[in-house]
User: Which sequence fits this backbone?
């Protein structure tokens, strides 16, 4: 195996993968620890007493972290041509690298190191740089199967979520417009304009109700109550869409595992090799051990009953 392929497996194999090598799991776990340590260090920098005492050590840790993340970023670009491309396997290597550079995770990797270089080259507000450093936490999504599942669900339901969000934004603008004309004369210093009224519409539609901006007229209160009741249902739409899609996604995984179990049972009893294969499939599909065991037992029971019924039929 070439050195480039070794690097590819070390960087692109999740630590929980059953096919991962020891080096891959070690590299991934070290990166996970480094990401968590960076987030903790970023938060500690905002504590004046701690920053005054440890600012030199925190600065050195930032330099080392950025160096490691930069090397990781460059290595991922280098091994990008080895990433399987089912749609176009003959795509040139440079095009595959460009495709990877434009991928969401590559952009997150870039944003994770960008604040350091921007602060060194450009005079920019340090608060903005600290805000960008939070992006490093998103890098953990690469190593978590649960987060990858959520990202997959969001990507699949992007159009539906966009439609629901568009409806909510339209309703928010309508609510802000109406409340402005109902309350402007009574509270000219609060509902100063329609854009300023958008805050009230957002807080009311989400049923948060901070109470910093409230209607005082009778019509305003009636309209506010109506918008609150409307928001209870409409703002639950995105959550319902994601919940439904997540359930369907998990059902597909269970169905794939069931198909694998049925194929193995049809060939006879489950051998040690088959059990090992099922365990690998279970981990790849991110199924719970008890759930997978229950599926296996139910299918085995169904298979035995089916064989017994066929045996009784043949005897008759």
Assistant:
């Amino acid at each position: 195996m070439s050195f480039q392929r070794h690097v590819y497996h070390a960087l692109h194999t999740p630590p929980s993968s059953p096919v991962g090598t020891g080096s891959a799991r070690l590299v991934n776990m070290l990166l996970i620890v480094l990401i968590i340590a960076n987030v903790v260090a970023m938060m500690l920098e905002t504590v004046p007493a701690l920053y005054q005492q440890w600012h030199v050590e925190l600065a050195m840790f930032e330099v080392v972290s950025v160096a490691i993340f930069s090397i990781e970023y460059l290595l991922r670009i280098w091994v990008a041509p080895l990433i399987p491309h089912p749609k176009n396997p003959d795509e040139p290597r440079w095009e595959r690298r460009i495709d990877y550079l434009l991928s969401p995770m590559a952009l997150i990797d870039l944003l994770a190191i960008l604040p350091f270089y921007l602060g060194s080259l450009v005079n920019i507000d340090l608060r903005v740089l600290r805000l960008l450093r939070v992006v490093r936490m998103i890098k953990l999504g690469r190593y978590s199967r649960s987060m990858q599942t959520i990202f997959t669900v969001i990507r699949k339901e992007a159009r539906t979520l966009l439609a629901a969000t568009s409806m909510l934004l339209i309703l928010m603008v309508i609510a802000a417009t109406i409340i402005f004309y109902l309350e402007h004369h009574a509270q000219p210093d609060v509902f100063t304009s329609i854009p300023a009224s958008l805050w009230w519409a957002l807080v009311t539609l989400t049923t948060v109700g901070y109470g910093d901006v409230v209607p005082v007229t009778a019509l305003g209160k009636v309209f506010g109550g109506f918008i609150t009741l409307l928001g209870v249902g409409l703002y639950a739409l995105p959550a319902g869409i994601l919940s439904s899609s997540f359930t369907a996604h998990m059902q597909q995984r269970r169905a794939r595992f069931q198909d694998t179990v049925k194929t193995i049972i049809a060939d006879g009893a489950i051998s040690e090799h088959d059990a090992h294969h099922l365990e690998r499939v279970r981990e790849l599909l991110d199924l719970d051990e008890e759930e997978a065991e229950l599926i296996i037992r139910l299918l085995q029971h169904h298979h035995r009953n089916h064989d017994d019924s066929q045996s009784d039929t043949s005897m008759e």
